[in-house]
Amino acid sequence: MSKELEVLQRRFDRERRARKEAESLLEKKSRDLFESNQTLSNLALSLEDSVNERTSELERAVERALQASKAKSEFLSNMSHELRTPLNAILGFSDILLTDPVEILSEEQKDSVQEIYSAGNHLLSLINEVLDLAKIEAGKLEVDCKDIDIAPIVMESIALIKPLAQKEGIEFELECDPEASFLVYSDAKRLKQVILNIMSNAIKYNKKEGYIRLLKGEVVSDKFLRFIVEDSGVGISETDMSGVFETFQRVGDKTSIVEGTGIGLPLSKKIMEQMGGDIDFSSEKGKGSKFWIDIPLAKGIKQGDLI
Ligand code: ADP
Known about the structure:
By secondary structure, the chain is an alpha+beta fold. The protein contains five helices and eight strands, in the order ααβαββαβββαββ. The strands form two sheets. Strands 2, 4, 5, 6, 7 and 8 form a six-stranded mixed sheet that branches.
């Protein structure tokens, strides 16, 4: 064999070996890839199984929670009805005892019956609040919104709450014109309930000889009348603010003797939302608070129309 042929033969052998090595490497890589692919498919399958299992577990948990919540709302609603019947009897009979012109009570007896009467009334309003809350949670609270004037509602609320304020030496200051009429779209009974709640809080969490200021109504976003109640009370710290609208949460001074349940504001918020409005506040600890409600304006009413 000539020298040139030998060189060619060696080169050919080298290339064949290199090709073989490359082929076996490729084969190994393909096998590895196939195995990885297999493992991945298995993993995907088991992941899918786990996801399906977790999803049905979650669905079952949601179903259980919904049933428990429904049962709780029904229980609260039934209990409230059951409690109201005997309570109304207690209130009715204490009223008869207090006003009976024939059997007149001694002063001491009168004081005791009066205590029964006011405690019973307090209990009745708590029961009513719990009942409202249960209704809202069950989606059964009905509101009957119409075009109404808010001014008489505010004046009636002030008249109802004034004796409580006077007992604490708290002054009512009216920046809004009591003669003015502000037409809003709302349920009068429910609106009064919310206004009474924020006004009574403004008294409960005020200081002796403090004030409650009813600010001039203002129109916000061309859609709502903002009714603002300002107080000179204890205020709410920044850390406590998030708890104010949480059901059964009472914030602030835990040693305070002020009575309450932490239902009023969360209930008021839900009522306002159901009526297409809202409630919110700003406050500074030790300096007082401003609570406001945004009530949808009566249909077709704009800022300039407010008289
Ligand atoms: P309650 O008065 O029955 O505790 P609310 O739901 O009406 O319940 O109020 C929740 C909490 O918000 C109260 O416990 C109180 O700490 C705080 N709060 C409400 N109104 C005021 C206010 N005007 N000034 C200071 N704190 C307030």
